[in-house]
Write a structure and sequence with these properties.
The protein is α+β, with helices and mostly antiparallel strands. 36% of the residues lie in helices and 18% in strands. Among the domains are: 48 residues, Membrane-bound Lytic Murein Transglycosylase D, Chain A; 120 residues, Glucose Permease (Domain IIA) (Distorted Sandwich), CATH 2.70.70. A hairpin with a 5-residue loop joins strand 6 and strand 7.
């Protein structure tokens, strides 16, 4: 048996060699087929690798597009001006909200050199694939009440655009010092406007449509805005903590022009409001009487 086994092993080896040689001899015919099969098998892996590489390239670009921008405050800057110049979506309120810890409780107190984050720019809208017919839903009919409300809003907007409406400069305020009250603390010898007592940060509105002729620092008046109206009169809003408009800008009735504060020569936060016949100090008329003559209930 051992001898027989020794004879069978070399035979088996020869057979193996024969098969190997045959395989080698047929390699020229088999290689192209195997190469094609290998290429097909590698295609999904290559696609995944290519997609991964592309995603890795696009991701940093997208992150860069949405990165926040840092702005260094310059002399003469205020939040509304920065928002307008830098095209910040959300305006000065967005800047203040994002930088409140750096600015503090008063949005008007920003100093040259202060670093402000202007936030990420909105990504450009991407074209979406057309909706499949099966997924499309018929538009819901607009309720009659909604249509009426839209028409009402359009009418109001047209009225505002024509400068026909007047409103109070602040909501829910009480009157502090009235017009023409005498006192040595005023250079004219009397109070040239009416004070509306409101806390810092209250919205200040334009009483009617008009054009901003002055917006900025006004000495004893602090941050102020002066607006010329269609009837030739000028309204002045003083001691504001921040401004939302700039010189030359057109405003509508009720549009926010800034926030109340205590800038300039004051003893506490309030809105000093004047009506003038010219844009300058010393041409004042009774502001309450003026508002009432235009149908505005005061006090």
């Amino acid at each position: 048996m051992p001898a027989k086994g020794k004879h069978r092993r070399p035979k088996s080896l020869r057979l193996t060699r024969t098969i190997a040689v045959a395989g080698t001899g047929g390699a020229a015919l088999a290689l192209p087929l195997m190469g094609a099969t290998g290429a097909q098998a590698a295609t999904p892996a290559a696609a995944v690798a290519q997609h991964t590489q592309k995603s890795a390239t696009v991701a940093p670009a997208a992150a860069k597009a949405g990165a926040s921008k840092t702005y260094a405050v310059k002399a003469g800057d205020y939040l509304a001006k920065i928002a307008d110049d830098q095209h910040v979506s959300g305006g000065w309120k967005k800047i203040y909200s994002d930088n409140r810890s750096a600015i503090g409780s008063d949005p008007s107190l920003i100093h040259p050199g202060l670093k402000l984050s202007l936030g990420a720019k909105a990504a450009a809208p991407q074209a979406s694939a057309p909706a499949k017919p099966s997924a499309a839903k018929p538009a819901a009919a607009k309720p009659a009440a909604a249509k009426a409300d839209t028409a009402s809003t359009a009418t109001k907007t047209a009225a505002v655009a024509n400068g026909s409406g007047y409103t109070l400069p602040v909501d829910g305020a009480t009157i502090g010092t009235n017009y023409k009250v005498a006192g040595s603390m005023w250079s004219s010898g009397y109070h040239t406007g009416t004070d509306f007592v409101v806390p810092t940060g209250t919205t200040i509105k334009s009483i009617a449509a008009g054009t901003v002729v002055s917006a900025g620092w006004g000495g004893a008046y602090g941050n102020q805005v002066v607006i010329q109206h269609a009837d030739g009169r000028y309204s002045q809003y003083a001691h504001m903590s921040s401004l939302s408009v700039s010189t030359g800008q057109t405003v509508t009735e009720g549009q926010q022009i800034g926030l109340s504060g205590a800038t300039g020569n004051v003893t506490g936060p309030h809105l000093h409001f004047e009506i003038r016949t010219t844009p300058d100090y010393g041409s004042d008329i009774d502001p309450v009487a003026y508002l009432r003559s235009h149908g505005v209930a005061v006090g």
